[in-house]
Amino acid sequence: MCNICEMKQILIIVSLMFLGLSSHAQTNAENLIGTWRLDSMNAEYMDFSEEEEELMEELKTQVYITFNADSTFNYPELDEDNPSSVLTGTYYLDKNNLVTREEGGDELEIILYRFIQSNYLSLSVDGETLYFRKDE
To answer: How many angstroms separate the CA atoms of 101 and 67, rounded?
Structure first.
């Protein structure tokens, strides 16, 4: 058997092994489940002053979103008058989009999502990208 033929067979075997292993990996929907905390953000139009940077650092400790296995989510409303207020809703994944609807609302919000790593997620809408790190 020629060397090229052997190399092709090895590549085919390795590819099949990889496909078999990847079928056991978590799906995006499974990986999304859990609590994600704001890590950073990037917006085309934002240029923060030093004071705003400090405010952003403080916000990072308060902003999170939790996705549950039953396709519900919740996140803090950040209302100074009612600090324990939490917004809830439902979600589903559609290709590269996270589609959400807040409880009691009629409007769907479509957010582009991407897993940078299994525990690092970007959510983008209207030129603004938020980066979240998953709680372990």
So the answer is: 13
